[in-house]
Amino acid sequence: MNKTIQINLAEIIFYIDEDAFEKLKAYLASLKDSLGNPVGKEEIIADIEARMAELFQAELKRRGKKSISSDAVDGITDTLGQPEDYVDEEAVQVENTRHRVRTILELRKLYRDPDRKVIAGVASGLAAYLGVHPLWMRISFIALSFLTLGSALAIYGLLWISFPYAKTSSEKLEMRGEPVNFNTIKKTFTSTGDRAETQANQTPTFFERLATGIGRFLLFTFKAIGYFILFLLLWVAAMAIGTLVLLAFGVFGVTNPHILSWDLSFLLHHIPFAIASLIVLLLIGGLILSIAGVAIGKKTADFLIRLSLLSLFILVIFAVVRLWHIWYWIP
Amino acid sequence: MKIENTQAQMRKGILEFRILSLLRDTHAYASDIIAQLKAAKLIVVEGTLYPLLTRLKNAGLLHYHWEESTAGQPRKYYALTPSGEAFLLKLQETWDALSQAVNQIAQRIKNQHDEQDNPNQPS
Predict the structure, then answer these.
(1) Is the ipTM of this complex over 0.90?
(2) Beta carbons of B47 and A88 less than 8 Å apart
(3) Which among A41, A172, A184 is positioned nearest to A102, based on CA atoms?
(4) Does B58 reside within a domain?
(5) d(CA A319, CA A175)
(6) In terms of DSSP H, where are the helices of A4-121?
(7) How far is B97 from chain A (nearest CA, A)?
(8) Is it the case that residue B34 has pLDDT exceeding 70?
(9) Do A94 and B53 touch (CB under 8 A)?
């Protein structure tokens, strides 16, 4: 006896044996995986499913059967080919230039990182999202907390509440933007195991640790300065856009001495406004160039896109906090 | 070095050319195209064709229309667009030049081979 399942393939209803169904499901899943993300992926899959339906219909008629057996699925696989036969190298290139932003958005998700956390994993999660070392994010957060008179702390808290920990292996892969499949999940397991082992085996002396520590610190300082300046500029740009948005909504039309005296960072919005606009223009220009596939490296483009997304997100939070303050201070 | 890999590369190179030339005079359903390509040993399995057809369609070289079939569901029938014809013409030129050059070399190798086999006969 065999359990039968009803499926819909290209608008045609089939009965399929349970084991055959599992086989077919696995085949379609690995096929989707090996196709990658070319333009018109849905269409390709729809075409293949339509062809499968046709082949199944012919097969059932030939054998005079009512339900699809495991052998029939094997027959289909022989005719249509293994998942790797579907790979079209040219199509992948099309995807790179035209669908870059979409792929980037789909690939990586913002999570808090429990493995590299210091407080709540917000900075390490953001770092994974942007593809930088967590330390830069931590320094940025600390520096910004001073510069914005605490607003950055509020943002930290909001990010803490808003985003979950990456708990499962697949969530951790999503956080880092690696494709989630059997091989990569296996890899995460093995690599965490390896790390534990190396840590246990090596016990460097105090002087060894000191030497590498000093070396790393020097390298780190130079890099940190660069990243800090970059982040600061982008932050200011975000604030400038925020100011513009608020101006557009007429929020600052209400001149209230309370606001000015309460928050010094309010001044910070207007002084670097001209510089900020320029940076925003450069950023947008760079983004357009990278999407068009003209210039800068893929990694840089990725980074810029992520960064601008993130600043947009922070900007929204910032605007909400600001509006709340303004309403709060107007009696 | 595996000879199968080189053979596969050679066939792959002319696959698009062959598909476009198949669709020049007639519009065809994917299965028809597959049957012809299989006969020419250009593809082994059907799956290779679907991503390729969609890419050529998205590039504006092919278009399709739906036709009812006796089997049940409607089928996609592909045909060349004007820019597909222009594309094919250019490929045809390249192919002619290439095949001429390759044939000359192949002929020379064959002649040398024949001379070695029959050294007494005048060539």
Answers:
(1) no
(2) no
(3) A41
(4) yes
(5) 26
(6) 18-35, 41-63, 70-80, 89-98, 100-107
(7) 24
(8) yes
(9) no
- For A103, the token pair is 């792929």
Please name the amino acid found at residue A82: Q
pLDDT, tens only, A141-180: 777 776 665 666 777 777 787 788 887 777 777 777 766 5
d(CA A155, CA A318): 7
B85-110 as b/e: b if 16+ CB within 10 A: eebbeebeeeeeeeeeeeeeeeeeee
Helix (H) or strand (E) holding A129: helix A122-130
**Interface contact A85, partner B, CB < 8 A:** yes
What is the strand order of the sheet B75-80 is part of?
Answer: B28-29, B75-80, B62-67
Give the closest-approach CA distance of A178 to chain B in angstroms. Answer: 24
Tell if the CB–CB gap between A81 and B53 is shorter than 8 Å: no
Q: For the residues of chain B, what is the DSSP string, one character each?
A: --HHHHHHHHHHHTHHHHHHHHTTTS-EEHHHHHHHHHHTTS-SSGGGHHHHHHHHHHTTSEEEEEE--TTSS-EEEEEE-HHHHHHHHHHHHHHHHHHHHHHHHHHHHHHHHHHHH-TTS--
B31, B55, B73 member nearest A88 (Cβ) = B55
Dihedral (Cα; B52, B53, B59, B62), 10-degree rounding: 150
Q: Which residues of A touch B72 (CB under 8 A)?
A: 12, 54, 57
Distance CA A324, CA A154 (A): 13
* A205 SS3 class: coil
Phi, psi of A12 (to 5 degrees): -120, 135
Instruction: Residue B46: list chain A partners with CB under 8 A.
Output: 51, 79-81
| pLDDT tens digits along A65-118 | 888 988 888 888 888 888 777 777 666 555 454 555 555 555 677 888 888 877
Range of the domain at B78: 3-117
pLDDT in tens, B78-120: 999 999 999 999 999 999 998 899 888 888 888 888 887 776 6
Q: A40 and B73 in contact by Cβ < 8 A?
A: no
CA distance A51 to B32: 12
| Nearest alpha-carbon partner for B51 in A79, A39, A93 | A39
Pairing of strands A12-17, A67-68: parallel
- Cα–Cα dist A228/A50, whole Å: 54
Structural domain count, chain B: 1
